[in-house]
Design brief:
This protein is α/β, with parallel strands linked by helices and 426 residues long. It has helices at 2-6, 73-76, 79-84, 95-109, 116-129, 216-231, 246-257, 268-279, 286-293, 310-316, 336-344, 363-368, 390-398, 414-424; strands at residues 8-13, 22-27, 35-39, 65-67, 90-94, 130-133, 138-140, 146-151, 159-165, 174-178, 201-205, 236-240, 263-265, 304-306, 323-327, 351-354, 377-380, 406-410. A 6-stranded mixed sheet has the order 1-2-3-4-5-6. The chain is globular, with a radius of gyration of 22 Å.
């Protein structure tokens, strides 16, 4: 069809893997130059590939808009580099993502060679360029391009993006949906993903396209029984967790379980993000709002301790159990969890609970694959996923009023993409 050849969408990152999300949409103008829209600009992790900006089909200074589906680093991590490379367009996201953007990038920038002053300048620039938008309302960009952000239920502020593009005439409207990362139904704190509007092309994530998660009820039961067993010998349970999303979910679930052991959040970023979650309670689901209305703060409890200062982290390394320590990074690539694992990996009394995706080549994945000497117990709780499973992804697509004419699966390893394609019948 004519319009397909006119409009180009390139998957510059996370085409066949899970991290480094980046998609470029080049929309031809009837007259004048094309409008270039980038959806996400994430950092790749582990062995996942990342395209050099010099090899982008259009130079960063020619990108008009950057849409950010959510504030995970594998979706936003290269925004500072994109700006350094010449991007000066508008950054469009939800209010929640806007609130999380700078704290998340500040943390990742602090691991670079940039000076404090340079970091401050780049953060100011990002703040100036970025705009927070409401869910569910249609907004217009230049050249008749419209967009709407739907709640993706993945983390606070996460969205999928629906675009309506007028190529030549009204009959020529072309609608594209970028799913971003889709969350599970019945996720703690967050509402379920919205139903997407109909579209011609759906670009959809497929992280867990080849499996189904346990139900939340089952997952809480499993977590409780595993923790009880693991802590019965007086050991420490380490939970490597993403600071954004997973840490807050864990606090919420541990509060519901009511463990009688101290729980330490050894993550300055995780604590900062938890405060943002607490502040943006308009983004919570009904269950969390009802708990708060009854006077039970859903993301705080007696026995939960914040470890902000590095000196206190050092003291925590000498702690004897039973205790639970939640620390970043989620894939053990850096952060305070690395010190904890160095310290506790060889003690059979201890246990490590993996509650998030571990990309190929990361230390977390290597521990699970038993490629690292380890005497502590290793547990993988797949139910704790911020990503929809196969059944949920299929249901989400089927919930559209009209099936998309084309579905492209991205953001998944080969097996997951193939299994989801089969389940969708594409
Ligand atoms: Zn994500």
């Amino acid at each position: 069809m004519q319009k397909d050849t006119q409009m180009k969408i390139d998957h510059l990152g996370a085409k066949k893997c899970v991290t480094g999300s980046c998609h470029l949409m080049q929309i031809p103008g009837a007259r004048g130059r094309a409008v270039n829209i980038l959806v996400d600009c994430g950092k790749a992790q582990g062995r996942d590939p990342e395209l050099d900006f010099d090899d982008f089909p259009v130079a960063p200074e020619k990108i008009d808009y950057l849409f950010l589906t959510h504030a995970h680093i594998d979706h936003i991590g290269r925004v500072p580099d994109l700006i350094d490379a010449g991007f000066d367009g508008e950054i469009i996201c939800t209010h929640g993502t806007k609130a999380l953007l700078i704290p998340m990038l500040h943390d990742s920038l602090s691991f670079t060679q940039k000076s404090k002053k340079e970091i401050q300048a780049i953060e100011q620039k990002i703040d100036d360029l970025s705009w927070g938008f409401e869910y569910g309302e249609v907004f217009s960009l230049k050249k008749g391009i419209r967009f709407k952000l739907g709640n993706a239920g993945h983390i606070l502020g996460s969205c999928f993006v629906w675009f309506k593009i007028c190529l030549e005439s009204d009959e020529d409207d072309y609608r594209v949906v970028f799913s971003g990362d889709l969350g599970c139904t019945d996720t703690p704190i967050l509402p379920d993903p919205d139903t997407p509007d109909a579209c011609d092309l759906l670009i959809m994530e497929s992280t867990y396209g080849d499996r189904n998660h346990e139900s939340r009820k089952k997952r809480i039961e499993v977590l409780k029984s595993c923790l009880t067993k693991a802590l019965s010998d007086g050991g420490i349970v380490y939970i490597p967790a993403f600071s954004l999303g997973r840490t807050q979910e864990l606090i919420y679930e541990l509060d519901r379980i009511g463990m009688k052991v101290p729980v330490f959040i050894d993550s300055p970023l995780g604590l900062k993000i938890t405060k943002i979650y607490a502040r943006l309670d308009e983004c919570w689901d009904r269950e969390a709002k009802e708990l708060k209305a009854r006077g039970d703060d859903p993301i705080n409890f007696k026995g939960l301790y914040s470890v902000e200062r590095f000196g206190d982290h050092k003291k925590l390394l000498k702690l004897s159990g039973p205790a639970i320590i939640i620390a970043g990074s989620g894939m053990c690539t850096g952060g305070r969890i690395v010190d904890h694992l160095k310290h506790g990996l060889n003690d059979p009394k201890n246990d490590i609970f993996f509650v998030g995706y571990q990309a190929k080549g990361t230390p977390g994945r290597r521990i699970i694959e038993k490629k690292v000497p380890c005497r502590a117990g290793i547990h993988k709780l797949s139910g704790y996923s911020a990503h929809a499973d196969q059944a949920m992804l299929v249901k989400w697509v089927k919930s559209m009023s009209v099936p998309p004419k084309e579905i492209r699966l991205v953001h998944g390893e080969s097996r997951a993409r193939k299994a989801l394609a089969a389940a969708l019948g594409i």
